[in-house]
Amino acid sequence: MRYDFGSDNTAGMAPTALEGVIAANAGFARAYGADDVTARAADQIRARLDADAEVRFVFSGTAANAIALSMLAFPFEAVLAHHAAHVCTDETGAPGFFGQGMGLIGLPGLSGRIDETALLAALEEPEVGHRQPAAALSLTQSTEYGTVYSEEELRHLIEPVKARGYGVHLDGARLANAAAAGFDLTQIARLGVDVLVFGGAKAGANCAEAIVLFDKSLARRLDNRLKQAGQTASKARFLAAPFLGLLESGDWEGGAAHANLMAMRLAEGIATRSPFVLAHPVEANAVFVRMPETAHARLNALGWACYRFDDGSVRFVCSWATREEAVDELLEAIAGLN
């Protein structure tokens, strides 16, 4: 089975990320994040965001999201999110686990973007003692369906939430792809996001992600919270080092731009050379295709890993490691299906 398009998680580490780890392995360094590598990586992230923020590196996106959300809502409250968001569908209740019972409220919206009308309706729901009231909003950029919110779209969602004094979390597992598609990272803090997960794994790192706190009042006891959650690495430099390699080299953005370009190449080929149609706009590194189960099974049987997503479409994901030749081979295989 070929995993070229199974997920951007199936690719290995980008060379500069691996070089970052090798460089961090030389000599001795202070433990628990007090080292120079961690400090430099955090500075690189702050520079990208043009914001003063607390930055911590953790082992997984699930932990990063769940811990971030647990800082924005009490156990008797809930977080609003798109119903297909990773926190709602793929984290096995981790937000509620880390949030000691905090709930999630799924909202509709086309192609992974939260519908503004649905959000406003949810915010107008009366607060009663028999259900968890909303206390925060979770957004995903780029979305689970490979679309990218514009700054204006995010503003329309964030402003009514902040007007009520609620918190805002941004899941940026594929933030590099959004940036490569033209999204201005410096607007994240200015839009009112309180906590950002700055993605590393899908951008070419190992399993590392970064929690970025723009609201520094939330940073009190953050290190204690991370330690209790098993997310404080003694040799923290090895979580930060892949970020440092990617960010100092520019490969965090460059690899994402390549992935986006490969996705566009794949999408154009499917639209012009196959009997199938695209299910969602292709704006980042994911391509969703309306494909019958029989055709999908045949493609898998030919050795191409691709997965049926929540809406029934088949998802293909490109990464920093995707080759043009692989895209063209996949297109030939798809063109032969019916």
Unreliable stretches: none
Kindly estimate the percentage of residues that lie in beta strands according to DSSP: 5-15%
Overall mean pLDDT:
97
Write down the secondary-structure element order. Answer: HHEHEHHEHEHEHHEEHHHEEHEEH
From the 3D coordinates, which CATH architecture of the largest domain would you assign? 3-Layer(aba) Sandwich
CATH superfamily of the largest domain: Type I PLP-dependent aspartate aminotransferase-like (Major domain)
What separation lies between the terminal Cα atoms? 21 Å
Form type: globular
Strand line-up across the major sheet? 1-7-6-5-4-2-3
Helix/sheet category:
alpha/beta
Measured on Cα atoms, how large is the radius of gyration?
20 Å
Tally of individual helices: 14
User: Biggest sheet: strands, sense, closure?
Assistant: 7 strands, mixed
Number of strands: 11
**Number of structurally distinct domains:** 2
Looking at the structure, the CATH topology of the largest domain is: Aspartate Aminotransferase, domain 2
Give the C-level CATH assignment of the largest domain: Alpha Beta
Helix content: 40-55%
Q: Can you put this structure into words, describing what you see?
A:
- Helix 1 crosses helix 11 (237-249), helix 2 (36-49) crosses helix 11 (237-249) and helix 12 (251-273) packs parallel to helix 14 (324-335).
- The protein has 2 domains: 15-249, Aspartate Aminotransferase, domain 2 (3-Layer(aba) Sandwich); 251-335, Aspartate Aminotransferase, domain 1 (Alpha-Beta Complex), CATH 3.90.1150.10.
- The two termini are 21 Å apart.
- The longest helix is centred in the C-terminal third of the chain and has 23 residues, at 251-273.
- It is globular, with a radius of gyration of 20 Å.
- It has a 7-stranded mixed beta sheet, sandwiched between helices. A 4-stranded antiparallel beta sheet has the order 8-9-11-10.
- The model has no long low-confidence stretch (mean pLDDT 97).
- It is α/β, with parallel strands linked by helices and 338 residues long.
- It is built from 14 helices and 11 strands.
